[in-house]
Structures are given as C-alpha cells and as structure tokens.
Amino acid sequence: MSGVLLKFNQLKKQFGYHRAVNSASGEICENEFISLYGVNGAGKSTLLYLLSGVYKPDSGSIDYLNLGKKNFHLKMQLMSHQSMFYARLSAYDNLFFFQELYGEARISEVLFALEMTGLIKARSKFIDGFSRGMIQRLMIARMILAKPEFVFFDEPFTGLDIQGQKLLLSIIENRGIPALHWKIKSFIFVDHDIDRAYELTSTVWYIQNGELQKPMTKNEMPLDQLRELLG
After folding, report:
1. How far is 87 from 154, CA to CA, in rounded Å?
2. Which of 48, 54, 160, 146 is nearest to 100 (CA)?
3. Helix (H, G, I), strand (E, B), or coil: what is residue 98?
4. 19-41: per-residue pLDDT in tens?
C-alpha cells in the first residue's frame, strides 16, 4: 500500500429511529482494495454512500487529505442500486450528458463505451424501459468513460448476464482497463458472493450493527472464519 487517500472518523447516519451507521472510523490507502462485509442491514450501503458523498453524515468527519474533496469526487465513481440516470433520456443521451459534466463530450467515446458494454443497439432507448442488467451495463459504460481512480462497488454484479459479469470481472481483476490507460488505484467492494469478494480484494472490512470493525488482512481473517462470522 502507498499513501493514505482518505480518512474518516466517527461517522454516524440515522434514518428516523434507525441508526444505519453508528460508529465508522478508518482510512483508505492507494493500492488498497477492500471487501466490505456484513449481514443484511448492517450498514454497508450507507457507509459507501457516506464515503462517496451521496449522503451527508449526521456527525463525524471525512478528510480528503492532499486530494481535496472536489478533486476526490472528480476521480471517484459509485456503482450502486441507485443508477442516477435520467429515466426519460436515452442511453446515449445519458452518457453524453454525463461526459459533458466532466469536460468535452466526444461522440466516438460514448459510442465506444456503448459498444463495449453491449448496449449499442439500445442506445436510442429510454432508460425507464431498461432491465436491471441493462442499467448495470450502462453504469459500466459510464465508468469506462470516466476512468475513475477510486470506485465504490455496491453489489455491482446484480442482474448482469454472463457476458456482463465477465466484462465487469475483467475490469475489477485488472484494476481498470490497461488498453484504455485506465488504472483503478483503490476500491471498496460489496458483494453477496463472499468468496468472489474475498478473492478480488486485499483488505477485509466488517461492519456489525452500524459499527465498522478494525480492518484486517486475509491472514488475520481467513475465508472459513469469515463465512462463520456471516452465518
């Protein structure tokens, strides 16, 4: 691992009477690839949304260190259950608009991302007619355009067919797409497949009742012990 990219301290987030994240402190380092585990409702998604800026914490702090908050968010992508696409725009228009937000939009790059994710024939269709798997593919296309250095994956394989899973798996295994000069420097990965998440990552995080436990290496948390912990 290299330098620390982000530190967070005593993050808390409550929805009504439910404390989704009760106490979360830690750090993310460059070249650190984290699997985040916990039972349903433990606070995994909420923690990702807090770290990615989708949610504002009720208390606690996030320090973006040398990168700064704005620069971090420019280099970060979240792939979650909330696609954040415009339902009444086409796949092409959603990607083109997204690319315009980050600079000059290029038609060729948008078409390439759609072709690579198998959505080129559906490029003119509105998003509200897309299946869950097609939405997931479009989020992969958005990542290909953005080439983020930091990614938060929240069950990204949900709904994907075999070809879509192969593409996403290749991106995660290769930490980006080398041919496109895209390198992912760090990510947090939530997946219902315990073994897959364990295999793809280097550091284990475990959250229980909204409290993030001490991070562990694979030597400190063997896979069999992790399976027992998760029931």
Report:
1. 21
2. 146
3. helix
4. 999 989 999 999 999 999 999 98
